[in-house]
Design goal:
There is one protein chain. The chain is mainly alpha-helical and 119 residues long. The protein has a domain at 34-109. The chain is built from 3 helices and no strands. It has helices at residues 4-20, 36-69, 73-109. Helix 2 packs antiparallel against helix 3 (73-109). The longest helix is centred in the C-terminal third of the chain and has 37 residues, at 73-109. The mean pLDDT is 80.
Length: 119
């Protein structure tokens, strides 16, 4: 037992170095690449979804105003203008999403996009 104890202590001290001798994997931040177009598309998609949710909410409130107007011309006009504004908001969201896609296509066709991998 006296001869085995130093061998066990030595093994316990050396074993971590043997395990670390295999090499460490690269840190995760070394492989992350940030593509500006993916970031722009991500933000655009979120803003587009928020705009559509807001437009649906405005349309629901406008429909409730129409239903509860019961001859009140001011409430009727308010509901009508809310519907028009909601539709204008949807149109602006669709145009902005298309504009981002068009700008990306123009930049990438001019050679300013990300390089394509070779064969």
């Amino acid at each position: 037992m006296k001869k085995l104890l130093p061998l066990l202590i030595l093994s316990a001290l050396v074993l971590p170095f043997v395990a670390l001798g295999q090499g460490l994997p690269p840190p995760p931040f070394a492989t992350i690449t940030i593509d500006i177009w993916n970031t722009v598309e991500f933000v655009t998609n979120w803003l587009f979804a928020i705009a559509l949710i807001a437009a649906v909410a405005f349309l629901i409130v406008a429909a409730i105003n129409f239903i509860t107007a019961s001859g009140d011309s001011k409430k009727h006009e308010t509901a009508k203008s809310m519907i028009i504004y909601a539709l204008i908001g949807v149109a602006v969201a669709v145009v902005s999403k298309g504009l981002v896609a068009m700008i990306r296509a123009i930049v990438e066709s001019a050679g300013g996009g990300a390089p394509t991998p070779g064969p």
